[in-house]
């Protein structure tokens, strides 16, 4: 998961709405099925999440009436879970098991439904022990949307790595270090290493995932004096 600026998230949501950016919807029926969010351009910005059932039609094929009749069923705090897992990424895959044993309505066949936008940000991945170069055009400054150090899949930064080093895909360390080091600068270099971010999963080869935008610097009154 990535560590986010609340102010930037609110601004991003407002910007996406005002710009008419389309909202994508993904619905996955209950069970060990892959719930996949993806952006061809930009990064994921989760808007709403439902895990439960609010109608008797969705994911109802072949199900007895008693399993789809309860349409007032929803698990709480699902949006926070999905935001922590997916915001700032280009691709995010999970299933309903991410909520653990929580069951908002036993006996009801549920589904996971996520609505999200693709936020126009630069997405950068840097393999462990390499340097991440964040930069903007002249006159613009960096604003980090999110950063995470760990591993979420077996393919990223996997070239010639032994299987034992890429098997753990439940490894994440959301970090504010990148935003603290880079926000407000035109360019910035950060090393993707355990010495900088700590080691969230010993023995796993990790990578740094960063999403950022380039903005005009904010001019404060004292700057104009």
TrEMBL record:
Question: Repeat as a keyword?
Answer: yes
Annotated keywords: Hemagglutinin, Lectin, Repeat, Signal
Question: Care to name a GO molecular-function term for this sequence?
Answer: carbohydrate binding
Residues in the signal sequence: 1-19
Q: Do the record's keywords include Signal?
A: yes
Protein name (Swiss-Prot/TrEMBL): SUEL-type lectin domain-containing protein
The SUEL-type lectin domain extends over: 37-119, 126-215
> CDD domains attached here?
Gal_Rha_Lectin_CSL1-2_RBL_SML_rpt1 (cd22833), Gal_Rha_Lectin_SML_rpt2 (cd22835)
Under the heading Pfam families, the entry gives: SUEL_Lectin (PF02140)
* Record InterPro entries: Lectin_gal-bd_dom, Lectin_gal-bd_sf
Specify the domain of life of the species encoding this protein: Eukaryota
């Amino acid at each position: 998961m990535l560590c986010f600026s609340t102010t930037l998230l609110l601004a991003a949501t407002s910007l996406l709405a005002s710009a008419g950016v389309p909202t994508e919807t993904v619905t996955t029926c209950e069970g060990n099925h892959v719930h996949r969010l993806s952006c061809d351009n930009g990064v994921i910005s989760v808007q709403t999440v439902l895990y439960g059932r609010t109608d008797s039609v969705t994911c109802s094929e072949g199900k007895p009436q008693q399993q789809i009749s309860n349409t007032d069923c929803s698990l709480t705090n699902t949006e926070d879970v999905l935001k922590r897992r997916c915001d700032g990424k280009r691709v995010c895959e999970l299933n309903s098991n991410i909520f653990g044993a929580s069951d908002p309505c036993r006996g009801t066949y549920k589904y996971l439904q996520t609505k999200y936008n693709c936020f126009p940000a630069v997405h950068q991945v840097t393999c462990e022990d390499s340097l991440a170069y964040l930069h903007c055009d002249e006159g613009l400054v960096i604003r980090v949307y999110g950063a995470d150090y760990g591993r979420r899949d077996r393919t990223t930064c996997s070239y010639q790595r032994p299987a034992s080093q890429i098997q753990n895909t439940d490894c994440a360390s959301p970090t504010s270090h990148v935003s603290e080091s880079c926000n407000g600068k035109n360019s910035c270099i950060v090393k993707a290493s355990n010495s900088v971010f700590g080691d969230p999963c010993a023995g796993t080869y990790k990578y740094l995932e960063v999403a950022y935008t380039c903005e005009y610097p904010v001019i404060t009154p004292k700057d104009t004096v």
